[in-house]
Write a structure and sequence with these properties.
The chain has 402 residues and is α+β, with helices and mostly antiparallel strands. Helices cover 42% and strands 21% of the residues. Strands 1, 2, 3, 4, 5, 6 and 7 form a 7-stranded mixed beta sheet that branches. A 4-stranded antiparallel beta sheet has the order 9-10-8-11. Helix 5 packs across helix 6. The longest helix has 23 residues. The protein starts with a helix and ends in a 16-residue tail after the last strand. The site of adenosine-5'-diphosphate has 18 residues, from strand 5 and helix 5.
Length: 402
Amino acid sequence: MNKYESEVCSVFEARFGHAPARTFFAPGRVNLIGEHIDYNGGRVMPCSLSLGTYAAASPRADGRIRLVSADMRGGVIEADIGAVSALECRPECFSGFGWAAYPLGVAAKLASRSHSIGGFEMAVCGSLPRGSGLSSSASLEVLTCAVLKELFGLTLDGVSASLLSLEAERDCAGVNCGIMDQFVCAMGRRGAAVLLDTHTLEYGYFPFDPGENVLLIMNTKKPRRLADSKYNERRAECEEALRLIGGLFEPQKTALCEITPEEFASVSAVLPEPLLRRARHAVTENRRTLEAAEALEAGDIARLGRLINASHDSLRDDYEVTGRALDTIVEAARSHPAVLGARMTGAGFGGCAIAIAERSAAEDVIAHVSALYRSRIGYDCEIYTAETGDAPFGKDDNDENC
Ligand code: ADP
Ligand code: MG
């Protein structure tokens, strides 16, 4: 039992007065490549982490739900399964529950699909930084699916759990996001990255075991303040670009990422600035993601590093979603000779970046980036060495996608 499992069990026992029936884990995630294209029908390639959220839980016979988080003030949040099932899935109906809107949203969504669930007690505890783009929210939603599946013997596969968790995040917590986060938090596997087609939900596992290298997650500690408004602006720009060029193809293209870079070159003159650059990012990032899958299949981490560098440059120059903190941390990493590639990950404007570095030099890279970042930005970043981890639904299906 690791220290988070012990903590979640002791919080459970202290609050609920008995030992939990079981403990559970769902990972956070980091996206290796394929950024800002999940809403353009593109491919993404995230991996699930060994950092994530732990739960200790037991069923209750009386329909009461009692939730506590070791990471939040405010004590036990109580609800009733009958009342939660009757709530309309709108953010106004869940906002009074604070952080518990995520697990209660999942319970409400399960109930709305006729899954038979009763009351339960659950304590949670996270080893992930929250609100930093490593998807602690999706981790918590998927964790709740895993808990309720086990406690109430539900028939629930990983793809359904991801879709239901996404709906809980959108409808109950009021956060608009794509399917990538929930999908990989539910379906990821240790030692693998997941290539996911966000249009069709086709997916496959690619070996990501950096071996002599290590994946670093570099948290700029800059809040992602602009991220929401710019996210909506970029989505609108991509829709407008598609409207202008989609119909120039026969058959018509229904998503930017259906257009290859070669096809794009033949129509790009139609697009005004900045739509040209926005669309070029989507089209080229989708190609880079496919090339990254090839690189992983060949065990070519150096090629993955170059693609990761190109991804950041495109997000900085064409998509304009990086900002000073992310550019500085990425440049600091790249200036170390043991770094194979670095880029922002997540929505941008703050949050986290990733780097792939030679494992033997990891400590030196961390010290180098930390010092440079502090001297240029004026406050400290946080850097974690990340390992991949198993997700609760990652091994449920047959192995045809391996
Ligand atoms: P991210 O998903 O990038 O970490 P979000 O803002 O989407 O950031 O989600 C963070 C929110 O998820 C927290 O504010 C909290 O409401 C909820 N959450 C995540 N982890 C926990 C936890 N361990 N305990 C309680 N709430 C959590
Ligand atoms: Mg989130």
